[in-house]
Amino acid sequence: MADGGTSDGSGPSAEEVAGSLAARRALGPDAEDAVIEAFLERTGQAIDKRVDARLQQVPPPPPLPNMPLPHTDHTPFVLAIVSLGAGIPLTGIATQFKGAGLVAVAMVWIGIAMINLIYNRYRR
Prior knowledge:
Low-confidence stretches: 1-7
Shape: rod-shaped
Strand content: under 5%
Largest sheet: none
Number of helices: 4
Structural class: mainly alpha
Radius of gyration: 40 Å
Mean pLDDT: 82
Distance between the termini: 70 Å
Order of helices and strands: HHHH
């Protein structure tokens, strides 16, 4: 093979393996690590070439469109929190009216509800 691989491209050729084994036997155990390292380096380079060739065949993904980020409006949430914060002391004040405490409490909360409803209706 021209790229040093087998006919199916799955690994090193038989000649490469045989050559590495022959070099290992000829050089002895002292050079065994160097022979193995050289064989693995050649095998790794062959794998890198095949991966690079396959990556060249894959088209790049299309670029993502420039979409604006959605604007998050927290105003309704803030209005609800402020309404609760205002409603609690107003309820306390309304309960101080003798004879009309329940009516005053109802008027406070109906007023707060109306403010929230009107705001949310006209902000759309």
